[in-house]
Every structure is written in C-alpha cells, then in structure tokens.
Amino acid sequence: MMKMKKSKILLHICCGPCALYPLKVLYKEGFEVTGYFFNPNIHPYQEFRRRIRALRQVAEIKNLPVIYDTEYGLRNFLRAITYREDKRCEICYLIRLEQTVKKALEEKAEAFTTTLLYSRYQAHSLIKDIAEDLAFRYKVPFLYKDFRIGWEEGQEEAKILDIYRQPYCGCIFSEEERYNKKLRRRLRRAKNESL
Ligand code: SF4
C-alpha cells in the first residue's frame, strides 16, 4: 500500500452519507481534506439538488471545505453513454475520477481519493483500477482505501445526523432498476446465468 506523508488530499464525494466514514478515516490519519462534488450522473434535477443539499449539511457538521460543481450534467452524461449503456458505470467512474484528478492538480492537492470506494453497491475493483490508471497518467497519487468496512458505521451516523439517504445510485437507468420490479428480476436472472 502507498505510504505518504500527511498531506492535502482531494476527496471526490458522490453524496453526503457516503462521505461520513471516509472522512472519519482520513481525518484520523491526519489528512487535510477538501471535498469535491462532481457528479453529472445524478438525475433528475431535483434529486441532484437534494444530494448537494445533503452534502452541504455534512460539510457544515464536519467543518469540511467542499468545491461544488453545481452544473447539472444530464446532457453530457447521456451523450457519453448512449449506445454504450451496458458499460455506463465504467464510463461514469472514468468521467468523475478524471475530472477529480484534474481538479487535484489545479488545487495542488498531493493526492486524491473517492467516496465511491465506500459503497457496497459499486464495482469496487473497477473504481480502483480506473483511479490507479489516472494517477499514473496524471502523475497525482491515488490513495486507495477499502472504505466498505465502515459501511454500517457510516449509515448509522447518517441516520443519527438525519442526512438524506438516496434510494438509488444516481442516473435515470439506476432509478429505473430500483423501481421497475420486472427489470430488476430480469437483471438478477441474467446475472445468475452469467455466474
Ligand atoms: S448506476 Fe451509478 S455508477 Fe452506474 S452509471 Fe448510473 S450513476 Fe453511474
């Protein structure tokens, strides 16, 4: 695992509740953390606003400086994944992490990491691979942590602090998968068959 001195780190944040546990870990290790909200994958617009509000709440409680990209990225996101919907998560991670590494350079952060590594529902190894590749290409160290070990702790804290916890990942496709029972059954079947 990478060893680095206590330094300024840019933490890509997908949403408020997912930031709680990673923040705890990073603060404990003495990092100077700046959050970065860049998530063009969150739809529809009201949900996008709701997640920004939840993060503002967390930032205030944790005294966390956050850079917010508040531009609603629906159109660019859809253009990037159209006809490649089956690869949409990979593209989504790449878009968000590449922008994060660029921001880390701009902000002169000594490393970057992401709250995506906290979620049990994301493709953890894929996120790690993409981030490591970006770190190599842009020459900015990536701090890998398996934040999933603090899943329950983070969720519990979000409940106590009464932070909005979203019911689906972010894009309109994940919203459909969350609420369309038939589609969920079909996806589950396809997944089982591929095992
Ligand atoms: S399901 Fe989540 S990770 Fe995958 S494309 Fe949609 S928002 Fe991005």
TrEMBL record:
Top-level EC class as recorded in UniProt: oxidoreductase
Transmembrane domains' residue ranges: none
Keyword field: 4Fe-4S, Disulfide bond, Iron, Iron-sulfur, Metal-binding, Oxidoreductase, Queuosine biosynthesis, Redox-active center, tRNA processing
Enzyme Commission designation: 1.17.99.6
InterPro entries (alphabetical): QueH (IPR003828)
Pathway: tRNA modification; tRNA-queuosine biosynthesis
Signal peptide limits: none
Superkingdom of the organism of origin: Bacteria
GO biological process: tRNA queuosine(34) biosynthetic process
GO-annotated molecular function: 4 iron, 4 sulfur cluster binding; epoxyqueuosine reductase activity; metal ion binding
Catalytic activity: epoxyqueuosine(34) in tRNA + AH2 = queuosine(34) in tRNA + A + H2O
Any Pfam family the entry gives: QueH
Binding site for [4Fe-4S] cluster: 14-15, 89, 92
Cysteines joined through disulfide linkages: 169-171
Family under the similarity heading: Belongs to the QueH family.
HAMAP family in the record: QueH
Task of the protein: Catalyzes the conversion of epoxyqueuosine (oQ) to queuosine (Q), which is a hypermodified base found in the wobble positions of tRNA(Asp), tRNA(Asn), tRNA(His) and tRNA(Tyr).
Name by which UniProt lists this protein: Epoxyqueuosine reductase QueH
Organism: Thermodesulfatator indicus (strain DSM 15286 / JCM 11887 / CIR29812)
Encoding gene (name): queH
